[in-house]
Design brief:
Layout (H helix, E strand, L loop, with lengths): L6 E3 L6 E3 L4 E5 L5 E4 L7 E5 L3 H10 L1 H6 L5 H12 L17
Antiparallel strand pairs: 1-2, 3-4, 3-5
């Protein structure tokens, strides 16, 4: 018997992909938006690809703000972009990236 693989939809390209291949963005109960590379932070989650073009589409279409029902400040968007830039395609942190998620 094969194990069921959870699938999630990327906000940018709208493709269904295995949950393990996507990055989870989370809005905490306090209202802070950050990337969750562990998938275990509490709060409302939305998923995105490791692809920079997907992130650009998400920002351009305001998809993250609509998903979380809050306005995303430019500073937070830039911080999310920096976090994405400092990770490889598996979500591991590169040596120059600080991923404390605040």
């Amino acid at each position: 018997m094969s194990k069921n693989i959870p699938m999630r939809q990327c906000l940018g390209c709208r493709e269904m992909k295995p949950k393990s291949e996507l990055i989870r963005a989370v809005k905490s109960p306090e209202g802070n938006v950050s990337l969750d590379f562990t998938g275990k932070k509490p709060g409302r989650g939305a998923y995105l690809c490791h692809d920079a073009n997907c992130f650009k589409r998400i920002v351009k279409s305001n998809a993250l703000a609509r998903s979380f029902k809050v306005q995303i400040p430019v500073e937070v968007t830039e911080e999310l972009q920096n976090q994405l830039d400092n990770t490889d395609n598996t979500g591991n942190i590169n040596n120059n990236g600080d991923m404390n998620g605040s």
